[in-house]
Design goal:
6-stranded mixed β-sheet, globular, about 20% strand, alpha/beta, about 475 residues, binds nicotinamide-adenine-dinucleotide, 7-stranded mixed β-sheet
Length: about 475
């Protein structure tokens, strides 16, 4: 069976009949054959998305109706948690429990934004006697969304939900490495009564469907989640058509642990922040900045934890699944070698594990790289794997300086029992989100998320994300 595109409410093959193979990273074998969208398919999807904007069923529907449909989508996702989680786990490799959590977060996006669909309000502006001036927040139009492979259903929902709550329509291009749940999400949305053309899903290649979408003259907005290099390329394409862009890019986020921290909490938080999804998370806490006195105890406990983790196929629900592809696996291995050459020491892991159920899957051990100094490549570049770079500091000022010595600024964690120190550090960290004595907030659907510096611009999640999907019209009335 070929997984199809979704255009104008219909499942469809690619215009030229082309397909591509999707691999199961837990086995290294084939998982599915998927229609490969072409430029012609992108044209059709963008046309359908515009028609939906102008339709009675969508553009002409009361905002509350959008909310009702979104509540049904949320429920449908919850009802199909096992089916969707298993599909996500096979496609991406993540452990089933993480995939289940991802489905819940996806449902939560629809639920959260359903509630705002009929509350997107403007202002009145006092101009004095004889005038009424008001603003209306209108949908920006067709939102093109290009997403990565690491959290397909979550990131798919994260972009679609605020866009359709605002009355926009969407053309979504999932990543070629893991497109399955995004396609299923599009199908479920239709089953829940979303009118044709409101959400179109175009699996395909980045350089073909992705580039055709980003450079399409008729899109009105672009939300891109992925690497910095591709982000720069698509932002340039969108700029040629004066299309505004939300850029959610990479990170090298620091977890800063002071010696007065609750180490029980910190061990758990630091380990989850790097090993969840095998480190393939934009907001992964991939740098540990630890105060000298706490170093030995913290690293020993992290090492115990890492050694105790079961690595295995996602659907066997291990502690950590495989890396998405052979190419990514080799890149991670390369980084560990680079770190060693730079003088870092592998405290735990650093290799491919062996085991009876690992077969030809793309597995890598949870890895701690100790004795990292702030300017090493492994401290500066996003590895996108389960590799924690451990850096020691002595003073608060030094920790802040090291944390900010990065081209990225997505997330940071601060671990201390001293609230004054925590607040002072949080205020000086250059990152879009700072967590104190925690890291992440169960998906963080409600919290604005996005980068400083090369981690991107614009905000997703939370009510702030609606700014990207609405445009403000000011109406000025003069009366006698
Ligand atoms: P990627 O940039 O290679 O691909 C992302 C998407 O862009 C895919 O759908 C791909 O097909 C598409 N694409 C590739 N080339 C394209 C082109 N020339 N034109 C248009 N589209 C193109 O990223 P990836 O490897 O899939 O994901 C990993 C990266 O994503 C990491 O850097 C990670 O930090 C980042 N990421 C960021 C966030 C965030 O919210 N900030 C979330 C997840 C991942």
């Amino acid at each position: 069976m070929i997984e199809q595109l979704i255009i104008d409410g219909q499942r469809a093959g690619a215009s030229d009949g082309g397909t591509f193979e999707v691999c199961d990273p837990s086995t290294g074998g084939p998982l599915a054959t998927v229609a490969k969208a072409t430029k012609a398919d992108v044209d059709r999807a963008v046309t359908a998305a515009h028609a939906a904007l102008d339709s009675k069923a969508w553009g002409g529907a009361p905002p509350a109706e959008r909310g009702r449909i979104m509540i049904r989508i949320a429920q449908s996702l919850r009802d199909r948690t096992e089916e969707l989680a298993t599909l996500e786990s096979r496609d991406n490799g993540k452990p089933l429990k993480q995939a289940r959590a991802d489905v819940q977060v996806a449902a939560r996006y629809f639920e959260f934004f359903a509630g705002i669909a009929d509350k997107i309000m403007g202002n009145t502006i006092p101009l004095g006697p004889g005038f009424l001036d008001y603003t209306v927040r209108e949908p920006i139009g067709v939102s093109a969304q290009i997403i990565p492979w690491n959290y397909p259903i979550q990131i798919g929902a994260r972009g679609i939900a605020p866009a359709i709550a605002a009355g926009c329509t969407v053309v979504l291009k999932p990543a070629e490495d893991a497109p399955m749940t995004a396609i299923r999400l599009g199908e479920l949305a239709l089953e829940c009564g979303l009118p044709p053309g409101v959400v179109n899903v175009l699996p395909g290649m980045g350089t073909e469907a992705g580039a055709a979408l980003a450079s399409h003259p008729d899109i009105n907005q672009l939300t891109f989640t992925g690497s910095v290099s591709v982000g720069i390329a698509v932002a340039k394409m969108a700029a040629d058509n004066v299309v505004p862009v939300v850029m959610e890019l990479g990170g090298k986020s620091p977890n800063i642990v002071f010696d007065d921290a609750d180490l029980d909490l910190a061990v758990q938080g630091v380990a989850n922040a790097i090993f969840q999804n095998a480190g393939q998370t934009c907001s992964a806490g991939s740098r540990l900045l630890v105060q000298r006195k706490a170093h030995d105890a913290l690293v020993a406990r992290l090492a115990d934890r890492a050694k105790g983790m079961r690595v295995g196929p996602g659907v066997s629900d291990p502690d950590m699944g495989p890396i998405i592809s052979k190419k990514q696996l080799e890149m991670i291995e390369g980084y560990v070698k680079i770190g060693q050459r730079e003088g870092a020491q592998v405290a735990v892991g650093g290799e491919r594990p062996s085991g009876p159920d690992l077969g030809q899957g793309f597995f890598f051990q949870p890895t701690l790289l100790d004795r990292v100094s702030p300017d090493m490549r492994v401290a500066q570049e996003e590895i996108f794997g389960p590799v924690l770079a451990i850096i020691v500091f002595d003073e608060v000022e030094e920790a802040i300086a090291i944390a900010n010595r990065s081209q990225y600024g997505l997330v940071a964690g601060v671990w201390t029992r001293d609230i004054n120190k925590a607040m002072a550090v949080a205020s000086r960290i250059k990152a879009g989100q700072v967590y104190i004595n925690t890291y992440g907030a169960g998906g963080g659907v409600e919290l604005p998320f996005g980068g400083y510096k090369k981690s991107g611009y614009g905000r997703e999640k939370g009510l702030d994300s609606l700014a990207s999907y609405t445009q403000i019209k000011n109406v000025c009335v003069k009366f006698a």
